[in-house]
Amino acid sequence: MHQEDDNIVCTMEDLIFIKPGNKVKLEYRKNKYPLEVYVLYIGGELLRKLSDEETRLDEAFDFVPYQVKIVHSETESAMLIKNISKKLYSMNNEPPKFAHSLYEKSLLTMILVLALRSSVQDDVQIKTKKKNTL
Description:
It is a single chain. This protein is mainly alpha-helical. The protein has helices at 44-50, 57-63, 76-91, 100-133; strands at 2-3, 6-7, 15-18, 68-71. The protein has a two-stranded antiparallel sheet with strand order 1-2. β1 (2-3) and β2 form a beta hairpin. The longest helix is centred in the C-terminal third of the chain and has 34 residues, at 100-133. The two termini are 29 Å apart.
């Protein structure tokens, strides 16, 4: 992946968060497994609808300290985000079940909260590791 003049190496299982208005170039090295790319764009109106009185998701995403962020696949958040995303994607091919809309909204909210938490927690873990090695 290239962001401006930076090269960042990712594994196929890592998550890449890109704030709107930013561009990246992805380069894929041939592997025995195909690359899967899931794109999830959430507008400000939906973020406000998914928010509650204590947490304004639209404001939280404006505040995150990155333009492009890599969340490594070993983190708990990344694993949860991937599994929930796959479930949301597969729901398109299933007949609606009990409380379908509520379930879908809850899963989407969970992905957004995990994305916010993982970007902040990952920064904290990296800063902590750097301090310990100095």
